[in-house]
Design goal:
2 helices; elongated; single chain; 67 residues; mainly alpha
Length: 67
Amino acid sequence: MRQPRDLEELLQIADDHDIAWHGQANRGDLADPDDRLFTRIEVAHSCRSGDDTSGRLIDSMVDRVKD
């Protein structure tokens, strides 16, 4: 998951329907507030990495067009 809004939507659905679930990557219990915080931080970091990669690709394409 790379977008914080996707995670928040998933957490809201789980809360609304009283669904307990666990993440595969870190085996955290997302019903636990501390594990939710850690997961939010991981998703925010992933989002930033995606933004950085996208920016580098765009810069590279602009440079090729200029050349």
